[in-house]
What we know:
Elements: H1 6-25, H2 33-36, H3 38-61, H4 74-98, H5 100-126, E1 135-138, E2 144-147
Helix pairs in contact: 1-4, 3-4, 4-5
Amino acid sequence: MAKQPRTSSAFISFLTILGSVVLAKYQYENISPFAQHNIAMRISLFATFIYFMVIVIYEILNFDGTVKVEDDGRYLLILGHVRFLSGTVAAILLILILIPYFGWFLLVIWIMFLVKIAWYWDKTFYNFDMLKKKKYVNDKEGRQEQLPPV
């Protein structure tokens, strides 16, 4: 069985601590954090669930740690981005409940990361040169050479 990355273990502990602090903040009040911050709590729980599921899927697909992004492991890169975005939004929403102004600031920074990652993955959709068919020609020795796109 593969070992879980240390950063994932540390981040899971960080999410646990943040959840405990949110519960401690509302311990002596008559209102629940789910009643006062319904949307933030639900999204945080959903993002935490996605974070844990991505970690499990990552471990199933790369259980021995030998698949690299260059060796047809591009899906691992996608899983890494999903893990980063879901884990950070879960933590940011819990911080938003604890320290609202700082939480909003972190949420704006998170949205910038989301746009950056979406921009990175969207390049194939607007770069039409990448979508053109590649033409190959056999040279005299039987090797294939790629012609430039027309």
